[in-house]
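FORM 12-B: Structure-to-Sequence Request
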């Protein structure tokens, strides 16, 4: 991104401080509470407790989710849903994806297409670990699975999706957001990602559409801020970038194709659903230069760093061990990271599948994505690498179920 956003950042911060003249006191009050919560999470993790909530898909399907699970998800902003798919099915998808990548010579085509010979040779493995693949049959089958639809509907209903006669989104209908796959090799050290949030960075301070989402925070009523309130979420305006998701996702997530847990090069979370409120007010404090937002950059993921957010980073914990067919979900404002090293003896592989409920924002994007699917091009939110245009075995409209056709916008709900 070459645009100079410094003047816009300075103007936005000045306006926000004018609206909240006691921003120092408000942040100090919040910081005390957030620091205590982060300390409690860190202590629980140190004691061997599992912080990330878990629920069995069978309980979701039967309507027997144990009391307290929903409250825990809303508090920590994340959850593992176990057994969304049978283990054998997930393992078969994993094997099919490995063949899909190999049979279509993805690695060599990636080198030739983007001129990465030097880059790949510099990597110990000589191979990428996240693949720009969107339309394989396993991905489409997982996205359109009936159990996936039921899990996403349950998760969506933890949000406030209607209020005062207004419906923000339909929790029971989800469009598919085409994301990629991870096939992380044993011993890989190339994929570590520092703590961050996707879906926008400086927009959260400089764009009025985000101000409505965080209205209670910027008004100083941070205790009233509800990260699960859907009001305004479907109307945000993101700065266009291959690093920014244009759909409204109630959750980011992935489906495990292999067993993986702490130390296996997998996901870490800062399980604090209200953590974004801290990040927003932290950037208004006087030790942050007027033209900066604690390191936030346009068109990039929003990073959490030690300089400004150290108290919350104490709460960074790994997700529990998961198995093929399990799924992991986190609120779009929850900070997440990826371990630097896959220390396991096996692959750490997933299909990235989030939740993108039916709303005008998502319907508009689906029109773009549908065209990409038909041609085998990359999802419009990502770099236009378009590897699958001539791939053998990629999914077509004939591979879509009746539900899948609706989720891809080929049929009305």
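FORM 12-B RESPONSE
SEQUENCE OUT:
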């Amino acid at each position: 991104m070459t645009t100079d956003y410094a003047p816009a950042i300075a103007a936005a911060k000045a306006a926000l401080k004018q609206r909240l003249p006691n921003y120092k006191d408000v942040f100090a009050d919040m910081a005390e509470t957030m620091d205590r919560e982060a300390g409690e999470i860190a202590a629980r993790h140190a004691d061997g407790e599992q912080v990330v909530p878990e629920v069995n898909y069978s309980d979701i399907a039967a309507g027997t989710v144990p009391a307290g699970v929903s409250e825990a998800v809303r508090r920590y902003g994340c959850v593992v849903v176990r057994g969304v798919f049978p283990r054998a099915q997930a393992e078969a998808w994993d094997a099919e994806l490995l063949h899909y990548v190999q049979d279509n010579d993805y690695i060599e085509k990636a080198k030739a297409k983007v001129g990465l010979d030097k880059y790949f040779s510099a990597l110990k493995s000589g191979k990428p670990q996240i693949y720009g693949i969107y339309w394989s049959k396993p991905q489409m089958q997982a996205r359109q699975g009936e159990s996936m639809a039921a899990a996403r509907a349950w998760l969506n209903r933890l949000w406030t999706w209607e209020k005062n006669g207004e419906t923000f989104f339909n929790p029971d209908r989800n469009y598919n957001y085409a994301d990629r796959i991870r096939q992380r090799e044993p011993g890989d050290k190339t994929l570590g990602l520092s703590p961050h949030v996707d879906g926008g960075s400086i927009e959260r301070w400089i764009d009025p559409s985000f101000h409505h989402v965080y209205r209670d925070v910027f008004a100083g009523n941070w205790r009233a801020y509800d990260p699960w309130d859907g009001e305004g979420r479907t109307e945000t305006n993101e700065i266009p970038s291959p690093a920014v998701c244009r759909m409204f996702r109630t959750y980011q997530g992935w489906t495990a194709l292999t067993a993986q847990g702490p130390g296996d090069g997998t996901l870490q979370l800062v399980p604090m659903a209200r953590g974004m409120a801290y990040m927003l007010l932290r950037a208004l404090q006087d030790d942050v230069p007027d033209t900066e937002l604690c390191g936030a950059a346009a068109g990039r993921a929003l990073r959490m760093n030690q300089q400004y957010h150290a108290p919350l980073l104490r709460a960074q914990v790994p997700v529990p061990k998961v198995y093929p067919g399990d799924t992991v979900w986190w609120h779009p404002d929850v900070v997440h990271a990826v371990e630097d090293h896959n220390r396991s003896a096996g692959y750490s592989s997933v299909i990235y599948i989030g939740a993108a409920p039916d709303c005008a924002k998502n319907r508009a994007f689906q029109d773009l994505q549908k065209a990409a699917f038909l041609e085998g091009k990359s999802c419009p939110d990502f770099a236009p690498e378009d590897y699958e245009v001539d791939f053998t075995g990629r999914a077509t409209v004939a591979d879509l179920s009746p539900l899948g056709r609706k989720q891809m916008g080929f049929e009305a709900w």
